[in-house]
Structures are given as C-alpha cells and as structure tokens.
Amino acid sequence: MKKSCSWPTNDLLMIKYHDKEWGVPVHNDKKLFEFLLLEGMQAGLSWRTVLYKRENFRKAFDNFDFNKIAKYNKRKINSLLKDEGIIRNKLKVESAVTNAKAFLNVRKEFGTFNKYIWSFVNGKPIQNKFKSLKEIPASTELSDLI
Fold it and tell me: Is-catalytic flag, 52?
C-alpha cells in the first residue's frame, strides 16, 4: 500500500479506491460519466456507501452507458427505484437520466466530454496541498464555473 491519506481508514475497498483511482486523471468519457453518476448519488452520503454499491450501480445502470441511460423512461426509472442494491432516491435516479442527456449534448458540441471538462484546466490536473479534510473547500471558483 502506498502512503495514504487519513480518510480511507482500514477499509480495504476505500484503500483500493484511494491507491488505484483517487486523484488519477481520467480521460475516458465512459469512466467520466461513471464518476459523474456516482458523485451525484453520493450527495449527502458517504463515498464509502457509494463504493460498496458501485457494482450494483454498474448492473442497474447498464454499465454506465450514457447513451442507454439518456433513453430511460418512467418504467425503467420505477424499476430502479425498487432496486435495493442502489441508492433509491427518486431525484438522484432522475438526475442520472438528466445528466446522461446533458452529457450527450456536451459531447455533441465538444466532440467528447473529456475535451470539455479538461479544457477548464488546460488539460493539467490541479495539485492541491491540503493537509487535512477540514482544509478542503466545499466549492471553488472553478467548481462554480463548471
């Protein structure tokens, strides 16, 4: 295990996420959409909760296929709201569909979501030097702009 932040604690799934994914630049549209969907589901909950349901989300949301998710109808949304393996908040499930449609619109305009999102930082990751979770702001000028 590499040097870790304090937040993964002794949870093996959180440690794996920290060591293999957290802070690693992503340029694949499908993976970017996966994170967009999961982050939306996480609102108000712990990231740990979402990680433990991640494979259930993958199955329920057609392997995070934004093309398919953008076409979900009320019947599909209602079936998702009955799926005990995912977070069954109606607004969050509906937002996944809305976000998939918006994602497709961004791709239509910019070619890829990757090109769009990375344009805000000239293709370079921001390297913060926060020492504790308390230092991390809830939002920044950049996050507000995006």
Answer: no
Which tens digits make up the pLDDT trace of 24-55? 999 999 999 999 999 999 999 999 999 999 99
Q: Please pick, among 22, 47, 116, 118, the residue that the annotation labels catalytic.
A: 47
What ranges make up the beta strands (E) of the chain?
none
Q: Domains, the chain, ranges and CATH?
A: 25-145 (1.10.340.30)
User: pTM for the complete prediction?
Assistant: 0.91
Q: Is 17 a catalytic residue?
A: yes
Residues 119-143: pLDDT tens digits?
999 999 998 888 887 898 999 999 9
